[in-house]
Amino acid sequence: MEREEEKTKEGSSYRYWVREATADAAPPPLPQKLSNNDVALNAAPASLGSLWNRAGTWEEKSLTKWATDRLKELLGSVGSLQFSSGKAEIIDVNRCVGDAFLVTVRNKKRVGYTYELSLKVEGEWSCEENMKKVKGSLEIPEFSFGELDDLEVDVKLSEDKELSQQLKQLIRLDMKQFLEPIRLKLGQFEQELKDR
């Protein structure tokens, strides 16, 4: 018991902050009214995202509706191509499935998308001095942001028993020439997406 009393008299190992001002302590701060210039100088920098996300942490915004409509519009404007033995044009976008998004991370804007496409194509090719109407589709299985150099097109022709295998092979090779105009339109789409 005596030892405990001695310890409390000596003081404990825990110290409180000084509660009473001493002569060498700094004076307490005084409140100051800010002027309009002070407020303007201390205003937070503009952030990219929503008002609630002033820190610019993580914010994701869906651009799928705009992107789907814009892809259909751009790919519908590819037009027709003339080949050595025929011509063809993209009639319609049969399928345009995917998503596009805008992400704000650490106050930096990043965009991305992933889509699958099917384009309806019609054309005419000369076969033994006759012009044969051909229908088919260009399938782009999957493409995403920044991967347009790796773009591939699969050509599917409608079943036509009058066409020889050799002519079908020629038509498939000709239709693959749509790849470059499609790639250019998708490049334009990527640039518009970045600028949003």
From TrEMBL:
This is Activator of Hsp90 ATPase AHSA1-like N-terminal domain-containing protein. It holds the Pfam family Aha1_N. One of its GO terms (biological process) is protein folding. Residues 60-196 form the Activator of Hsp90 ATPase AHSA1-like N-terminal domain. The lineage of its organism: Eukaryota, Viridiplantae, Streptophyta, Embryophyta, Tracheophyta. Transmembrane segments: none annotated. SUPFAM superfamilies: Activator of Hsp90 ATPase, Aha1. GO terms for cellular component: cytosol. One of its GO terms (molecular function) is ATPase activator activity. Belongs to the AHA1 family.
